Amino acid sequence: MKKHLLWLLFLCTSILSAQEYFPKDDGVKTPNNKTIAFTKATIYITPTNVIKNGTLLVKNGKVVNVGRSVSIPKDAQIVNLEGKNIYPSFIDAYTDFGIAKPKRQRGNPNASPQYEPERKGYYWNDHIRPETNPIADFKFDAKKAKDLLKAGFGVVNTHMQDGIIRGNGLLVSLNTQTTNAYRVLEDKSAQYLSFTKSNKSRQMYPGSLMGSIALLRQTYNDADWYLKGNTKNKDLALEALDRNKNLPQIFYAGSKINAFRADKIGDEFGIQYTIVGGGDEFERINDVRATNATFIIPINFRAAYDVSNPYLAQHVSLHDMRKWNQEPTNPKVLAENGVTFSLTTHSLKKVDDFTKNIQKAIKYGLDKTKALEALTTVPAKILGKSNIGNLQTGSYANFLITSGDIFDPKTTLYENWTLGDKNVINDMNVKDIAGNYALALNGKTYDLSITGKGAKQKGALKLDDKKVKSKFSFKDGWIFMSIPSENDATKFNRLTAKITDSPVILGKVINEFGNESQWSAAKTIKKDDKKSKDKNKKDNNSTPTVLPVSYPNVGFGLAQQPKQETILFKNATVWTGEKEGNLENTDVLIKNGKIAKIGKNISAGGAKTIDATGKFVTAGIIDEHSHIATTSVNEWAQNSTAEVTIEDVVDPNDVNIYRNLAGGVTSIQILHGSANPIGGRSAIIKLKWGENADNLIYNNTPKFIKFALGENVKQSRSRNGTRFPQTRMGVEQMYIDYFTRAKQYDAKKKSGQAYRKDAELETLAEIINKERFISCHSYVQSEINMLMKVAEKFDFNINTFTHILEGYKVADKMKEHGVGGSTFSDWWAYKYEVNDAIPYNAAIMHNQGVTVAINSDDAEMSRRLNQEAAKTVKYGGMSEEEAWKMVTLNPAKLLHIDNKVGSLKVGKDADVVLWNTNPLSVYAKPLKTIIEGRTYFDIDADLAKREAIKAERSKLENMMLHEKINGGKVQPPSKRVKELFHCETLK
């Protein structure tokens, strides 16, 4: 079978010469080597090199000459294109043309998960498929080719859209008059990547976006190790990856945030990907520009929402409404910011929409030269091809003949030539007779309206504003029309006319009796038509109203990042969280993003002074255990996933960041879920609403990882769980096994010997070396004891037991081990292993000397952590000061960031909250939430934003109603429900 495929590959790559000696039994064999000269045209050799009254000379499918003074061979066929334009045919650099995507395998939902790969001799993960060569699967799609030719495309780059590393692609001409032997211009045009698993395999890993990212990193590391000759086994996938490394690398991201993630991987391994975007790049254009990547951009602009029902309209988010309004500006914004991009038909439901959408993008400000570059020279450069996308001598004869400006809606595309063969789109010899006419027949005047283009022009007839049933056709320059007789509707007058250059159509009519007479039709311009034309001209020339982008581009987003201020709070009750305790009638000065002074009667020139009389100033709340602001939470498909990190999937657009700020939260640890004993690494972030993902993450962030114990990791509630471990005993043995291997790995690394870089074991070695800290999901005392003993066996400490609802049973042992506890205030009995939980847990651990924090593990609860802390006063008699530390200083200590945040101390970061009253009160509200001297939440600004959102929605709804009333496309309202992640969420 392999030999057969290799032979096919050889045929397809060498067939251009092989065809010359193939016998031909179905006709003559003499090749058509005719030279064709296209003269007197405006020729776009490239988008920026345009000649008027030029000649294009074509022979054997190539451009042999082009210019103003081209010598035309005597035997050349001459085509006079006076008044017409010639452009290079378009190139689509990202398609699946002719290559069917494999369907996902349907399995028994009760079947055991598949953890091992199905293939032998390839990489250990089935979703890495760089060896894929789609030449054997390629089938030329004549129907789709016809649609693409109509849209102006002459060449497409296609591949198998399946897998994380997808293999190479094919560069294909859309010539419908030849075979694949000539159509396939390149059988290894690029290598393709994505974050999406293959449909060909049921292998579970990766089960999340962060798993896909980690797998890509490990694949590159393993390829480097393999190619240095360090393994005994044969790996056909890694060998293919090496063969493909010099091809263009095209990464399907599908959104701006995934584009940033892909670019970071590329930067790490010295690869500059070409990135397939999502059309939302305008929302973070500075970050897009910073990637230095070339983008392939879809132009699948969404239709307006049908908001005629005001109650259903409420389901549409402001973000979605904005995107309808703003998306058409994306190409313009990219061009104006110096981002190189091509355009693609990818993700369009109909190729027919491409032309309309590019015209819309131009109406919204895209420069026409940039548009032409995005369809010709840029995709050619992406693919490393100099013989397509232009009409220079030696290039393929792929070109368009048009009546005028290619992007003008009134322009007619006549022909699309591919490899020197003509594809007629609209017959250029057919005259354009569209318009309104006064048709004189038998003493009566009819209104004749002719619409459409080329051979598809059609007519409609009225008499005294009443529609007249008639049959109209226009073919080979002749009009044929049948009109019912006035006296007998079953009999007809048959009209014919030859179209000439005369402004009046003159013809003959044969009536129902066979008598012949004449008819005529003169073009008219009605007042209504003139008004309509003036209106259309005005509409076409008018600049559309585009609402401004915010950061993030949602209702509560910021028009710009808040500026760092010098702020002086006067006469506040200040809860320092330090040895000074709670201070009455005290001032706090914030300067240069730091706490500058705390005391009485402070003055500061130029400071913004806030009268805080009767109000409270505290450090910002810190949530030690959160799952907001992330795109995925659990890499659940293996029992150990130390190689993954939440930092790869931080989501700065999550509105829960803003909601947490409204609750006084300034920092959080985004933890991996609890699906496996060894989970992924954490992200510790500041809630700098409006910043990008990288700017949320702490500088020099402490290294953390999530471990888990109990029911979740042994799959107690899984109906088909077979993954090791299945018991609590197995969990212990798994930890010992992994740490033993990590110790051996670390020893080899430190010895100076060559070693295979393993992200998983690197992370576990960091734990042994006390460079990374463990936050462990835990409930039952026996397992808590077990993990502390395992840690002591390998000479390190557990940093934090999170949840720890039986912590009160082992608080003395926790103190002795040196581990902290991050718990719920009063959650219990939500599953079996929580039956022994009590609300006094936090106080008991605290009284034993354990550093205790109260966490949320919930997007809703995290907004009210001040109230959760207050519960420890009720349950356990904690002082207000110590209760408050459980959501400020104590979680800061557990996260090793207490040198920066967690209390009000001179020199610490100015992460500060101004409260209207005692923060432990159920009536407490943050008035301002400040991070490093920048105000990210202000209650008065919040109220103003609510009114602004209401006004903006109303404006957008009226714009959408206008779109609908004027015949534009609309779609039904739809509601996007954001999933709130928890420890158990498998995503």
Question: Could you write a compact summary of the structure shown?
Answer:
The chain is of the alpha/beta class and 987 residues long. Helix content is 26%, strand content 24%.
> How would a textbook summarize the main sheet?
9 strands, mixed
Distance between the termini: 39 Å
Based on CA atoms alone, the radius of gyration comes out at 35 Å
Q: Tell me the structural class.
A: alpha/beta
Count of DSSP-assigned helices: 25
Low-confidence segments: 1-18
- Shape estimate: elongated
| Average pLDDT, all residues | 93
Helicity, in percent? 25-40%
Q: What portion of the residues fall into strands of 2 or more residues?
A: 15-25%
Q: Quaternary state, please?
A: single chain
Total count of strands: 44
What do these coordinates show?
- The protein has 987 residues and is of the alpha/beta class.
- The strands form seven sheets. Strands 6, 7, 8, 9, 10, 11, 12, 13 and 15 form a nine-stranded mixed β-sheet that branches.
- Strand 19 and strand 20 form a beta hairpin.
- The longest helix is centred in the C-terminal third of the chain and has 27 residues, at 939-965.
- The chain starts with a helix and ends in a 16-residue tail after the last strand.
- 47% of the residues are buried.
- Mean pLDDT is 93; it is low at 1-18.
